[in-house]
Each structure stands twice: as structure tokens, then as C-alpha cells.
Design brief:
The structure is a single chain. By secondary structure, this protein is an all-alpha fold. The chain has 5 helices and no strands.
């Protein structure tokens, strides 16, 4: 499961995104970070252009 799937299922806290980023950075996974996390293009844009908090709010609306 991706970060997004686990977060939306309530299995992990949002702050664990940092752990997923570290795993991706230390892996040879060929997917982009956004794909690895399970984020859509729109979610990725909000995260990059705005903030972690903006992404969290966007994901929380999907719960």
C-alpha cells in the first residue's frame, strides 16, 4: 500500500510521509516520489506549490 492509501485508511499519521520519502530516497525505485507516495498530479502540485499542511488538508477531505 502507498502512503496515501494507508493515511486515508487511518493506519498511519500524516507525519509518516517523511519516513516514506526517506525510504524512496534510499531505494532504486524508478517511480517518481509522487507515484511512490500514491499522490495524484493535483495533490503533488498542492504539496510542492503550497505546503505539507495543504496536502494534508486535501487528503483529509478524501477521508
Amino acid at each position: 500500500m502507498t502512503f496515501k492509501e494507508k493515511y486515508l485508511a487511518g493506519e498511519i499519521e500524516f507525519e509518516e510521509i517523511d519516513d516514506y520519502i526517506e525510504i524512496w530516497n534510499n531505494s532504486d525505485d524508478e517511480r517518481t516520489l509522487a507515484k511512490f507516495l500514491g499522490l495524484s498530479a493535483e495533490e503533488e502540485d498542492v504539496w510542492i506549490d503550497d505546503s505539507d499542511e495543504a496536502l494534508r488538508e486535501m487528503l483529509d477531505r478524501q477521508k
